[in-house]
Amino acid sequence: MGAVSNSCFSSVFIAPLENDDFLKQRKKKSTYNFMDSNKKFVSFGKIYCKQPESGIEEKPTSQRASSSNNRMEEYNIAMKKMMRNPYEYHHDLGMNYTVITENLIVGSQPQKPEDVDHLKQEEDVAYILNLQQDKDVEYWGIDLQSIIRRCQELDIRHMRRPAKDFDPDSLRNGLPKSVSSLEWAISEGKGKMYVHCTAGLGRAPAVAITYMFWFCGMNLNTAYDKLTSKRPCGPSKTAIRGATYDLAKNDPWKEPFESLPEYAFEDIADWERNLIQNRVRSLRGT
């Protein structure tokens, strides 16, 4: 598929689904890439997955493995409950991601400095946008400071725009600043942008879709479908519509967003898009 514009994605993909989108995406099959025993990425499709160097035990016996499995189970139960989707996060398989366009990658959290090395060497990543809260990082036992240090050593710009996991209101409030960071990095053009949350199935794809909606001339459904066709997932459309409403409407007498129909702000007029773009760009550096 041809690029929409010089600064926009040529193809895209997404995270967990909701309502009718869930039924459509459930029929699609995803393929994954895993790291083999020689510690190389093996490509089996669009999604790349980096397995820990120690490999994966089929029957974990250690207390550490049991604790990790419990965390994954708790996280996936919460994901299914809040996002109404069948997708799961498997932390033990390592970092996984999908190349959306020539300058945008959406994926899960880097787990160690070597993951940053891979993103730099294999994908030419120059920017990382982390949407996790501190408690997300602590929950999975990630040494974030070691990852940030490695980014500095490799001249990768590491940025954080925390949003609460499984919380559409927090996502809605954080989208303008997150998209501002994403838009700035893409406009710089020094390398690819890696956007991640924890699993890469909710917050990160939502930011990518919103950027496509606001800056690439697409309506919300087109942007959503383009991303989810590559990375099956289901971020909240309501959060994206709400953030669009917040930026496009500043009249003191405007109707409350919650009273609008479900299709409201799935598309916007040119003057509204220009207004949103100016407001998002004004957030750079905040």
UniProtKB/TrEMBL annotation:
Q: Which InterPro entries match?
A: DSP_laforin-like, Dual-sp_phosphatase_cat-dom, Prot-tyrosine_phosphatase-like, Starch-Glucan_Phosphatase, Tyr_Pase_dom, TYR_PHOSPHATASE_DUAL_dom
A single GO BP? starch catabolic process
Q: Which residues form the Tyrosine specific protein phosphatases domain?
A: 173-232
Q: Name one GO molecular function term.
A: starch binding
Q: Which GO terms describe its cellular component?
A: chloroplast
Q: Does the keyword Hydrolase apply?
A: yes
Q: Identify the PROSITE patterns for this entry.
A: TYR_PHOSPHATASE_2 (PS50056), TYR_PHOSPHATASE_DUAL (PS50054)
User: Which Gene3D superfamilies does the UniProt entry name for this protein?
Assistant: Protein tyrosine phosphatase superfamily
The protein depicted here goes by the name Phosphoglucan phosphatase
Q: What is the lineage of its organism?
A: Eukaryota, Viridiplantae, Streptophyta, Embryophyta, Tracheophyta
